[in-house]
Sequence to fold (472 residues):
Amino acid sequence: MKRKIITKKDIWIFAALLSLAVAAVFVPQLFADGGRRAVVIYNGEPVLALELDKLDAVKTYTFASVEVEIGPDGARVVKSDCKDQICVRSGLLTKNGDTAACVPEKVVLKIVSEKTAQDVDAVVY
Amino acid sequence: MGNRTKRKFIGGTAAAVLAAALAAVILLDLLPKKTEKRSVTAVAMGSVLRIDVYGGADDTLQTAQDAVHALDGKISRTIDTSFVCRINENTVYDTDREFVGFLQTLIDISAVTDGAFDITVGGLTDLWDIEAAQPRIPAEKEIAQTLSAIGYQKIQIDGTTVSVPAGMLLDMGAAGKGMACDAIKAALEQDKTVTGAVAASGGSILVYGKHPEKKSWTVGVRDPDGGENDLMGTITTAACCLSTSGNYEKYFILNGKRYCHILSPFDGYPADSGLKSVTVRAATGMQSDALSTACFVLGVGKSLPILEKFGADAVFVTDDNAVHVTEGLRRDFEITNTAYHIADFDL
Fold:
């Protein structure tokens, strides 16, 4: 009888190991840094970073005259003494890259996440 | 299990483990490598400056940021000691070679655009003061008087000394954020270990080098009718500079009419060429920024030969949501918002 070099059992083991190898490579990527964070930059320095998914209530923070609300659904600038109020009009920031900037007060509020539906490197405007 | 079967099983398993390990190694190699990323967000040139650098030395990010502040220190209209302010105040001022280089290139762009982009519009910008708490429409007489002081041809350069006629006010704002992208690029080029970078000076974008995931860079184009974070399309591109001029950025509405901040040096009124926005892709930030302003003033038809002269491309969004895309961008541009539709150039 001719001897088989690779048996059915070997193929099953190979398949299982290959699946494990593939899973080991891809699964961590699926879950890597998926959490959205609200980041506040004041005077060019990051001064606050909160993971939205870990918040259970809306919290309010103040930087210069800029009042910022951060909660599980997103973050927004609710008040600023600036003239144009562009930062306040930016509304609720929810997605990766969403930004509200108060240039006169040097405050930037931003949502940061590695995962995004609209995966762009930058936005031209 | 007999000895022979055991040996066969062990041999087969070893082969399978080796094959699986090999497969994993190949897969890992195919996957994008994580290059170290350094980022900074700051306020510069009157807007938000964001720089993401992949690879590079520890101090490269700071060098790039410093380059923008140094540029701002020369061309700003709000920093009293800048060359622009000094020239505007004294009509004659001894600058430096770099500034004169900028000025000459901007004058060249002004000439190619027949003055649709003109760096001497400072008086007009001040007259309209679009960002004022209570903006107003200036009287025709005021506009006529201000227009008489405009004209890039009247700037005189002698070595590093720049002189302008009394009453003329230089304003490089329409190219400044693009120039910041160029300053960042120049700083990054000094560090050969930088593999790629994305920088945003306000809405002007620099994409530099290779994408860390070995793919093209993707830049979103803002929806002129949407919020600050809404897109109307995307551009996939290799290294380049991109700028947009739009009627949504700074404006005021009076009696139902929108008056935007992009002023026509031809008639002295906010540009009204049937466009909501125009996005330009060019080799330098100065070009992309200045040309986007010129194209917004000129409208689609008159812009095409100018873009061609610079080897630049553009996405025009008209008032009726038609999107005109120049040849070089047709493959790279994609509409992501159903409110807009691609149109051809049969105008």
